[in-house]
Specification:
Number of helices: 15
CATH topology of the largest domain: Aspartate Aminotransferase, domain 2
CATH class of the largest domain: Alpha Beta
Structural class: alpha/beta
Number of domains: 2
Distance between the termini: 50 Å
Oligomer: single chain
Number of strands: 13
CATH architecture of the largest domain: 3-Layer(aba) Sandwich
Radius of gyration: 21 Å
Helix content: 40-55%
Bound molecules: pyridoxal-5'-phosphate
Length: about 400
Protein backbone atom coordinates (compact mmCIF):
# COMPACT_ATOMS: atom_id res chain seq x y z
CA UNK A 1 0.00 0.00 0.00
CA UNK A 2 1.14 3.48 -0.89
CA UNK A 3 0.93 6.08 1.91
CA UNK A 4 0.61 9.61 0.59
CA UNK A 5 0.42 12.67 2.83
CA UNK A 6 -2.31 15.23 2.31
CA UNK A 7 -1.31 18.42 0.52
CA UNK A 8 -1.92 20.35 3.74
CA UNK A 9 0.62 18.24 5.58
CA UNK A 10 3.08 17.82 2.74
CA UNK A 11 3.22 21.55 2.03
CA UNK A 12 4.30 22.48 5.58
CA UNK A 13 7.89 23.32 6.34
CA UNK A 14 9.34 20.95 8.99
CA UNK A 15 8.26 22.09 12.47
CA UNK A 16 10.98 24.49 13.50
CA UNK A 17 12.00 22.83 16.72
CA UNK A 18 12.00 19.36 15.20
CA UNK A 19 14.78 20.41 12.81
CA UNK A 20 16.75 22.04 15.63
CA UNK A 21 16.37 18.88 17.74
CA UNK A 22 17.87 16.88 14.91
CA UNK A 23 20.91 19.18 14.56
CA UNK A 24 21.35 19.30 18.32
CA UNK A 25 21.39 15.51 18.48
CA UNK A 26 24.09 15.39 15.82
CA UNK A 27 26.36 17.70 17.82
CA UNK A 28 25.60 15.84 21.05
CA UNK A 29 26.57 12.55 19.37
CA UNK A 30 30.02 14.07 18.88
CA UNK A 31 30.30 14.33 22.69
CA UNK A 32 29.80 18.12 22.87
CA UNK A 33 28.28 19.55 26.08
CA UNK A 34 25.37 21.34 24.44
CA UNK A 35 23.77 24.43 26.01
CA UNK A 36 20.21 24.65 24.77
CA UNK A 37 18.71 28.14 24.46
CA UNK A 38 16.51 26.99 21.61
CA UNK A 39 13.04 26.06 22.80
CA UNK A 40 10.97 28.34 25.06
CA UNK A 41 10.31 25.67 27.66
CA UNK A 42 10.85 26.78 31.29
CA UNK A 43 13.51 24.78 33.18
CA UNK A 44 12.03 25.74 36.57
CA UNK A 45 9.62 23.34 38.32
CA UNK A 46 5.88 23.86 38.75
CA UNK A 47 5.26 25.40 42.21
CA UNK A 48 4.61 22.72 44.82
CA UNK A 49 1.14 23.90 45.91
CA UNK A 50 -0.08 23.34 42.35
CA UNK A 51 1.38 19.83 42.23
CA UNK A 52 -0.27 19.06 45.58
CA UNK A 53 -3.63 20.23 44.26
CA UNK A 54 -3.24 17.85 41.31
CA UNK A 55 -2.26 14.96 43.60
CA UNK A 56 -5.40 15.39 45.65
CA UNK A 57 -7.69 15.90 42.69
CA UNK A 58 -6.23 12.89 40.88
CA UNK A 59 -7.31 10.65 43.80
CA UNK A 60 -10.94 11.71 43.43
CA UNK A 61 -12.64 9.32 41.00
CA UNK A 62 -15.20 12.01 40.10
CA UNK A 63 -12.39 13.63 38.18
CA UNK A 64 -11.64 10.56 36.09
CA UNK A 65 -14.64 10.89 33.78
CA UNK A 66 -15.04 13.01 30.65
CA UNK A 67 -14.83 16.68 31.61
CA UNK A 68 -17.16 19.35 30.24
CA UNK A 69 -16.24 20.41 26.69
CA UNK A 70 -15.98 24.08 27.56
CA UNK A 71 -14.17 23.57 30.87
CA UNK A 72 -15.30 23.17 34.48
CA UNK A 73 -17.49 26.03 35.70
CA UNK A 74 -15.14 26.43 38.66
CA UNK A 75 -12.10 26.79 36.42
CA UNK A 76 -13.80 29.26 34.09
CA UNK A 77 -14.94 31.28 37.10
CA UNK A 78 -11.39 31.28 38.47
CA UNK A 79 -10.23 32.62 35.09
CA UNK A 80 -12.84 35.40 35.20
CA UNK A 81 -11.82 36.35 38.75
CA UNK A 82 -8.15 36.35 37.73
CA UNK A 83 -8.91 38.69 34.80
CA UNK A 84 -10.73 41.03 37.16
CA UNK A 85 -7.88 41.02 39.69
CA UNK A 86 -5.08 41.21 37.20
CA UNK A 87 -6.47 43.46 34.43
CA UNK A 88 -9.69 44.87 35.89
CA UNK A 89 -11.55 43.22 32.99
CA UNK A 90 -15.05 41.84 33.67
CA UNK A 91 -15.87 38.49 32.06
CA UNK A 92 -18.96 36.32 32.07
CA UNK A 93 -17.48 32.93 32.95
CA UNK A 94 -20.26 31.11 31.15
CA UNK A 95 -20.15 32.87 27.79
CA UNK A 96 -16.81 34.63 27.61
CA UNK A 97 -14.39 31.96 28.85
CA UNK A 98 -13.39 28.60 27.40
CA UNK A 99 -10.84 26.13 28.78
CA UNK A 100 -8.17 24.88 26.38
CA UNK A 101 -5.77 21.94 26.37
CA UNK A 102 -2.92 24.44 26.32
CA UNK A 103 -3.33 27.66 24.36
CA UNK A 104 -1.59 26.17 21.30
CA UNK A 105 -4.62 23.93 20.91
CA UNK A 106 -7.03 26.88 20.77
CA UNK A 107 -4.74 28.92 18.54
CA UNK A 108 -4.48 26.06 16.06
CA UNK A 109 -8.24 25.47 16.06
CA UNK A 110 -9.66 29.01 15.93
CA UNK A 111 -9.15 29.42 12.15
CA UNK A 112 -11.33 26.33 11.56
CA UNK A 113 -14.21 28.25 13.11
CA UNK A 114 -13.93 31.44 11.05
CA UNK A 115 -11.79 30.85 7.96
CA UNK A 116 -13.19 29.38 4.76
CA UNK A 117 -10.90 27.95 2.05
CA UNK A 118 -9.30 30.88 0.22
CA UNK A 119 -9.91 33.40 3.03
CA UNK A 120 -7.13 35.60 4.33
CA UNK A 121 -5.81 36.10 7.86
CA UNK A 122 -3.34 38.75 8.99
CA UNK A 123 -0.37 37.16 10.71
CA UNK A 124 2.76 38.83 12.09
CA UNK A 125 6.19 37.90 10.81
CA UNK A 126 8.16 36.74 12.73
CA UNK A 127 5.65 34.83 14.87
CA UNK A 128 4.75 31.69 16.78
CA UNK A 129 4.53 29.21 13.88
CA UNK A 130 1.11 27.91 14.94
CA UNK A 131 -0.65 31.08 13.64
CA UNK A 132 0.11 30.62 9.93
CA UNK A 133 -0.09 26.83 10.16
CA UNK A 134 -3.54 26.98 11.77
CA UNK A 135 -4.71 29.33 9.03
CA UNK A 136 -3.33 27.04 6.31
CA UNK A 137 -4.89 23.92 7.86
CA UNK A 138 -8.24 25.69 7.56
CA UNK A 139 -7.54 26.30 3.85
CA UNK A 140 -6.83 29.99 4.39
CA UNK A 141 -3.89 32.15 3.41
CA UNK A 142 -1.74 34.11 5.85
CA UNK A 143 -0.92 37.70 4.88
CA UNK A 144 2.26 38.54 6.75
CA UNK A 145 2.62 41.85 8.56
CA UNK A 146 6.34 42.40 9.12
CA UNK A 147 7.47 43.28 12.64
CA UNK A 148 10.36 45.66 12.14
CA UNK A 149 12.87 47.14 14.54
CA UNK A 150 12.05 50.69 13.41
CA UNK A 151 8.41 50.11 14.46
CA UNK A 152 9.39 48.58 17.81
CA UNK A 153 8.32 45.21 16.38
CA UNK A 154 4.67 46.25 16.17
CA UNK A 155 2.85 45.68 12.86
CA UNK A 156 2.25 48.80 10.77
CA UNK A 157 -1.51 48.50 10.27
CA UNK A 158 -1.50 51.36 7.77
CA UNK A 159 0.86 49.31 5.59
CA UNK A 160 -1.75 46.55 5.12
CA UNK A 161 -3.21 47.11 1.62
CA UNK A 162 -6.80 48.41 1.83
CA UNK A 163 -8.14 45.47 -0.19
CA UNK A 164 -6.37 42.99 2.06
CA UNK A 165 -7.68 44.67 5.20
CA UNK A 166 -11.20 44.57 3.77
CA UNK A 167 -10.91 40.87 2.87
CA UNK A 168 -9.13 39.52 5.94
CA UNK A 169 -11.33 37.59 8.36
CA UNK A 170 -9.01 37.22 11.29
CA UNK A 171 -5.80 38.60 12.73
CA UNK A 172 -3.24 37.17 15.14
CA UNK A 173 -1.23 39.35 17.50
CA UNK A 174 1.03 38.49 20.43
CA UNK A 175 2.35 40.91 23.10
CA UNK A 176 4.59 40.58 25.02
CA UNK A 177 5.97 39.03 21.86
CA UNK A 178 7.60 35.75 21.04
CA UNK A 179 10.19 35.85 19.44
CA UNK A 180 11.07 39.57 19.51
CA UNK A 181 10.21 40.16 23.22
CA UNK A 182 8.57 43.46 22.20
CA UNK A 183 5.71 44.90 24.24
CA UNK A 184 2.55 46.74 23.22
CA UNK A 185 1.13 49.87 24.79
CA UNK A 186 -2.55 50.64 25.22
CA UNK A 187 -2.36 53.12 22.33
CA UNK A 188 -1.40 50.34 19.91
CA UNK A 189 -4.24 48.09 21.09
CA UNK A 190 -6.65 51.01 20.63
CA UNK A 191 -5.50 51.32 17.01
CA UNK A 192 -5.98 47.57 16.57
CA UNK A 193 -9.57 47.85 17.85
CA UNK A 194 -10.49 50.60 15.41
CA UNK A 195 -8.71 48.82 12.52
CA UNK A 196 -10.56 45.59 13.34
CA UNK A 197 -13.89 47.37 13.70
CA UNK A 198 -13.68 49.24 10.43
CA UNK A 199 -12.54 46.15 8.52
CA UNK A 200 -14.62 43.54 10.34
CA UNK A 201 -11.63 41.47 11.42
CA UNK A 202 -11.64 39.07 14.40
CA UNK A 203 -8.63 39.81 16.60
CA UNK A 204 -6.95 36.84 18.27
CA UNK A 205 -4.47 38.14 20.81
CA UNK A 206 -2.01 35.64 22.26
CA UNK A 207 -1.18 36.82 25.78
CA UNK A 208 1.00 33.90 26.87
CA UNK A 209 3.67 36.20 28.35
CA UNK A 210 1.75 38.88 30.23
CA UNK A 211 2.96 37.49 33.58
CA UNK A 212 6.62 37.20 32.64
CA UNK A 213 7.94 40.75 33.00
CA UNK A 214 10.78 42.67 34.60
CA UNK A 215 11.84 45.92 36.24
CA UNK A 216 8.34 46.37 37.69
CA UNK A 217 6.71 46.49 34.26
CA UNK A 218 3.16 45.05 34.14
CA UNK A 219 2.04 44.04 30.64
CA UNK A 220 -1.57 44.84 29.73
CA UNK A 221 -4.30 42.65 28.32
CA UNK A 222 -5.71 43.39 24.85
CA UNK A 223 -9.15 43.35 26.51
CA UNK A 224 -8.15 46.42 28.55
CA UNK A 225 -8.39 48.50 25.38
CA UNK A 226 -11.75 50.16 24.89
CA UNK A 227 -13.95 48.14 22.55
CA UNK A 228 -11.56 45.17 22.44
CA UNK A 229 -14.08 42.71 23.85
CA UNK A 230 -16.32 43.57 20.88
CA UNK A 231 -13.75 42.59 18.26
CA UNK A 232 -11.74 39.74 19.62
CA UNK A 233 -10.54 37.15 22.04
CA UNK A 234 -7.39 36.66 24.03
CA UNK A 235 -5.51 33.40 24.52
CA UNK A 236 -3.80 32.67 27.78
CA UNK A 237 -1.85 29.82 29.18
CA UNK A 238 -0.66 28.50 32.50
CA UNK A 239 2.42 27.14 30.72
CA UNK A 240 4.80 30.05 31.14
CA UNK A 241 3.26 31.77 34.18
CA UNK A 242 3.44 28.70 36.44
CA UNK A 243 6.02 26.56 34.62
CA UNK A 244 3.33 24.14 33.50
CA UNK A 245 4.15 23.54 29.83
CA UNK A 246 3.76 19.77 30.19
CA UNK A 247 0.39 19.99 31.92
CA UNK A 248 -1.48 21.36 28.90
CA UNK A 249 -3.84 23.94 30.32
CA UNK A 250 -4.86 27.28 28.84
CA UNK A 251 -7.95 29.33 28.08
CA UNK A 252 -9.44 31.89 25.73
CA UNK A 253 -11.61 34.83 26.78
CA UNK A 254 -13.55 37.52 24.96
CA UNK A 255 -16.47 38.05 22.63
CA UNK A 256 -19.09 35.29 23.20
CA UNK A 257 -19.73 34.42 19.51
CA UNK A 258 -16.01 33.89 18.92
CA UNK A 259 -15.64 31.75 22.05
CA UNK A 260 -18.70 29.79 20.98
CA UNK A 261 -17.25 29.22 17.51
CA UNK A 262 -14.03 27.87 18.97
CA UNK A 263 -16.06 25.64 21.28
CA UNK A 264 -18.03 24.32 18.33
CA UNK A 265 -14.83 23.13 16.65
CA UNK A 266 -13.35 21.76 19.86
CA UNK A 267 -16.39 19.74 20.84
CA UNK A 268 -15.93 17.81 17.60
CA UNK A 269 -12.23 17.19 18.14
CA UNK A 270 -11.36 16.86 21.84
CA UNK A 271 -13.19 16.18 25.06
CA UNK A 272 -11.73 18.83 27.33
CA UNK A 273 -8.84 19.02 29.77
CA UNK A 274 -8.45 16.45 32.59
CA UNK A 275 -10.46 17.78 35.54
CA UNK A 276 -7.67 17.16 38.04
CA UNK A 277 -5.46 19.45 35.97
CA UNK A 278 -8.16 22.11 35.87
CA UNK A 279 -8.44 21.90 39.67
CA UNK A 280 -4.67 22.35 39.89
CA UNK A 281 -5.10 25.29 37.51
CA UNK A 282 -7.55 26.88 39.94
CA UNK A 283 -4.94 26.47 42.69
CA UNK A 284 -2.45 28.23 40.40
CA UNK A 285 -4.70 31.18 39.51
CA UNK A 286 -6.19 31.68 42.96
CA UNK A 287 -3.21 30.75 45.13
CA UNK A 288 -0.29 32.78 46.40
CA UNK A 289 1.35 34.57 43.46
CA UNK A 290 4.74 34.85 45.16
CA UNK A 291 5.88 32.01 42.89
CA UNK A 292 5.38 34.27 39.86
CA UNK A 293 7.42 37.06 41.43
CA UNK A 294 10.19 34.61 42.31
CA UNK A 295 10.22 33.25 38.79
CA UNK A 296 10.48 36.73 37.30
CA UNK A 297 13.30 37.60 39.69
CA UNK A 298 15.21 34.60 38.42
CA UNK A 299 14.59 35.39 34.75
CA UNK A 300 15.52 39.02 35.33
CA UNK A 301 18.91 38.01 36.75
CA UNK A 302 19.45 35.69 33.81
CA UNK A 303 18.38 38.39 31.36
CA UNK A 304 20.89 40.82 32.83
CA UNK A 305 23.74 38.33 32.55
CA UNK A 306 22.94 37.32 28.98
CA UNK A 307 22.06 40.76 27.59
CA UNK A 308 25.02 42.52 29.25
CA UNK A 309 27.32 39.74 28.06
CA UNK A 310 26.01 39.80 24.50
CA UNK A 311 26.38 43.60 24.33
CA UNK A 312 29.90 43.26 25.68
CA UNK A 313 30.64 40.89 22.80
CA UNK A 314 29.66 43.68 20.42
CA UNK A 315 26.30 42.28 19.35
CA UNK A 316 23.19 44.42 19.02
CA UNK A 317 20.25 43.64 21.30
CA UNK A 318 17.61 45.47 23.33
CA UNK A 319 17.07 44.55 26.99
CA UNK A 320 13.58 43.03 27.06
CA UNK A 321 10.96 44.21 29.56
CA UNK A 322 9.05 40.94 29.24
CA UNK A 323 9.23 37.31 28.01
CA UNK A 324 12.23 35.03 28.44
CA UNK A 325 13.57 35.68 24.95
CA UNK A 326 16.54 37.70 23.78
CA UNK A 327 16.25 38.82 20.15
CA UNK A 328 19.75 39.38 18.84
CA UNK A 329 20.85 40.89 15.55
CA UNK A 330 23.30 38.58 13.81
CA UNK A 331 26.75 40.04 13.15
CA UNK A 332 27.74 41.40 9.73
CA UNK A 333 28.37 38.71 7.18
CA UNK A 334 26.00 36.17 8.71
CA UNK A 335 22.45 35.08 7.93
CA UNK A 336 20.25 33.80 10.76
CA UNK A 337 20.91 30.22 9.67
CA UNK A 338 24.67 30.71 9.30
CA UNK A 339 25.00 32.28 12.75
CA UNK A 340 22.85 29.54 14.30
CA UNK A 341 25.03 26.86 12.71
CA UNK A 342 28.20 28.69 13.79
CA UNK A 343 27.05 28.83 17.43
CA UNK A 344 25.95 25.21 17.42
CA UNK A 345 28.78 23.51 15.59
CA UNK A 346 31.65 25.62 16.99
CA UNK A 347 30.26 26.53 20.41
CA UNK A 348 27.72 23.83 21.23
CA UNK A 349 25.09 26.54 21.78
CA UNK A 350 21.57 25.98 20.49
CA UNK A 351 19.68 29.12 19.45
CA UNK A 352 16.73 29.55 17.12
CA UNK A 353 17.29 31.25 13.74
CA UNK A 354 14.99 34.26 13.44
CA UNK A 355 13.86 33.38 9.91
CA UNK A 356 12.35 30.17 11.31
CA UNK A 357 9.61 32.41 12.72
CA UNK A 358 8.95 34.07 9.37
CA UNK A 359 10.95 35.85 6.68
CA UNK A 360 10.99 39.18 8.59
CA UNK A 361 12.91 37.38 11.34
CA UNK A 362 15.91 37.05 9.00
CA UNK A 363 18.92 38.80 10.48
CA UNK A 364 18.16 37.72 14.05
CA UNK A 365 18.55 34.76 16.35
CA UNK A 366 16.49 34.10 19.46
CA UNK A 367 17.97 32.92 22.74
CA UNK A 368 15.69 31.64 25.52
CA UNK A 369 16.61 32.21 29.18
CA UNK A 370 15.95 28.59 30.04
CA UNK A 371 19.26 27.66 31.67
CA UNK A 372 20.85 28.85 34.92
CA UNK A 373 23.15 31.84 35.43
CA UNK A 374 26.40 29.84 35.34
CA UNK A 375 25.45 28.28 32.01
CA UNK A 376 24.59 31.71 30.61
CA UNK A 377 28.00 33.01 31.65
CA UNK A 378 29.47 30.01 29.87
CA UNK A 379 27.48 30.91 26.74
CA UNK A 380 29.15 34.33 26.71
CA UNK A 381 32.60 32.81 27.29
CA UNK A 382 32.11 30.27 24.54
CA UNK A 383 31.04 32.92 22.01
CA UNK A 384 34.02 35.04 23.04
CA UNK A 385 36.27 32.05 22.44
CA UNK A 386 34.91 31.06 19.01
CA UNK A 387 34.44 34.64 17.81
CA UNK A 388 32.28 35.61 14.85
C1 LIG B 1 4.59 29.13 24.87
C2 LIG B 1 3.64 29.87 24.02
C3 LIG B 1 2.29 29.59 24.08
C4 LIG B 1 1.75 28.61 25.09
O1 LIG B 1 1.44 27.41 24.56
P1 LIG B 1 0.69 26.35 25.45
O2 LIG B 1 0.04 25.51 24.41
O3 LIG B 1 -0.31 27.04 26.30
O4 LIG B 1 1.73 25.63 26.23
C5 LIG B 1 1.42 30.31 23.29
N1 LIG B 1 1.87 31.29 22.48
C6 LIG B 1 3.15 31.61 22.42
C7 LIG B 1 3.59 32.73 21.56
C8 LIG B 1 4.09 30.89 23.18
O5 LIG B 1 5.39 31.20 23.08
Amino acid sequence: MNIKKSNRLASLPPYLFKEIDRQKEEVRQRGVDVIDLGVGDPDLPTPIHIIEALNQAALNHQNHRYPSYSGMDEFNQAVARWYKRRFNVNLDAEKEVITLIGSKEGIAHIPLAFINPGDWALVPSPCYPVYPTGVQFAGGNPYFMDLLKENDFLPDLDAVPVEMAKNAKLMFLNYPNNPTSAIAKREFFKNVVSFAKSNNIIVCHDAAYTEMAFDGYQPISFLEAEGASGVGIEFHSLSKTYNMTGWRLGFAVGRPEIIEGLGGIKSNIDSGAFQAIQIAGIAALEGDQTCVQNMNKKYQERRNILVDGVIDLGLSVKKPKATFYIWIEVPDGYTSAAFTTHLLTKGGIVVTPGNGFGSAGEGYVRMALTVGKERLKEVIERIRAIGF
